Amino acid sequence: MAFSINTLDDVFRADMDNGSSIEDRLHAIKNLHNAGIYTVLFMSPIFPYITEWKDIIDGTKENVCEYWFENLNLRGEYKSSILSYINTHHPNLKEKYETIYLEKDSTYWNTLADLLNTYCNELGLNYVNYFYHEKLVKEKLNNQ
Question: Is 101 in the same domain as 113?
Answer without folding.
Answer: no
